[in-house]
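Hey,

The postdoc asked me to send both predictions to you directly instead of through the lab channel. I've kept everything plain text so nothing gets mangled by the mail client. Protein one:
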Amino acid sequence: MKVSDLVCSLNHLDPDEDKRKENNEYFINVLKISKEFGTNIVTTNTWGDRTRPPKENLSLYKEVFSEYAKIAEDNGVRIAMENCPHMGSYPFSIGNIGYSPAIWELLFEAVPSKAIGLQYDPSHLFWLGIDYLRGIYDFKERIYSVHAKDTEIIKDNLYKEGIIGTNWWRYRLPGLGEINWQKFIGALYNIGYKGDIIIEHEDPLFSENRTDEGLKLGLKHLKLFVL
């Protein structure tokens, strides 16, 4: 057993200044102690002020994550930002601004440090209609961690609600949705990815007393393609 990465998901850009300061200090401490757990990767979400469009959070992101990047560099640690949008219901809002390739480009432009990269999760990209294979190649130098989570499209609900509905997709364990894991893992091999592939279990059909059963199913499917 080993620790692949430490997850520390706080709102780094909280609109409440006092809460933001508290969160920033906590995250900095996590960066400084992460190696004590045997890992040099800290994963998080690029939370922001969901009352504002993602791009309006960029100036504060630059301020906060520039400090994070310097501390990460000094401590030999990498920060991997997950791409889940954490979308709210009507009126739609984005909780995590780092959810798409266009925003990733802006984030890396704002803070160019290679201490900051991605925790790449194809499940979110799939239901957003983003090419999850192309993203691997376009951001190959910034993928520091990978989530293995699938997505199932519930076609009857999609027909009834359209894409602005909220019940037409759900997360599944690898092999139980529509992600092409052979091509996905093949793309990771192609770019020379050497990190871990982590099953993120959010499958509602394998919850509670079926959790272990679900994890075994997901692992069995991934083993078809992982050396």
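Protein two:
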Amino acid sequence: MASLDSWTLGEHRNAGGDTRPTYRKGTGPGVVVIHELPGMTPDVVAFGDEVVAAGFTVAMPVLFGKPGQAMSPLPLVRSLAQVCTNAEFTKLATGRTAPVTDWLRSLARELHTELGGPGVGALGMCFTGGYALAMMVDDAVVAPVLAQPAAPFAVGRRRAADLGLSPADQDAVVARARAGCPVLGIRYVEDKAVGTRFETLHRLLGEKFLAVDLPGKGHATLTEHRHQEAVDRVLAFFGERLRG
């Protein structure tokens, strides 16, 4: 776990008593970076380091997988088994917000209370991509970023278009966007895992959905298939939204 040696291991406990590990590093406005499948890989940590270097305090929660373990088939299979048997994560259901986002919202509120400013950023990737959108329901999150959102799994047209939100949460996201909070989304245009969610976001949020459409068939825009334009747009978005 050499990539995490410079990070501080802690934990966050929400009002319901749910406690999960977190890694934290940096100074400046707060950003919650949520790892992708199979977990907090070295590539995810490297991206977190880029956000820190840009002048932000980054909190990376551990939701599944082994922190620091590299991307490979076996950890991916183990993480998939973990999320598929855990009711905290939404895999195929439509019109439902993943219960784990309640804990993530609590983490964001705590970070905002500690650090102040206009709010915090929230970034999800792949399986957790939509979690940043669910966190936007809370006013503490003012810079939500969806990197290749891939849940619920894009099996069939309905799931491919679904944002992983309950009707009430979707209404709250639309209201916040109309009130002035933009949403940044990043994908490779030929990435089938994202489904038609960007089309749904354009329809619901209009000009408040800021889409970064990268050419090609890659998937992990900020990590394994890192694209510099994607990283630059994310850091600029955080700067604009979190530094006022």
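Summary for protein two, as requested: Residues 2-242 form a domain with the Rossmann fold fold (CATH 3.40.50.1820).

Thanks,
C.
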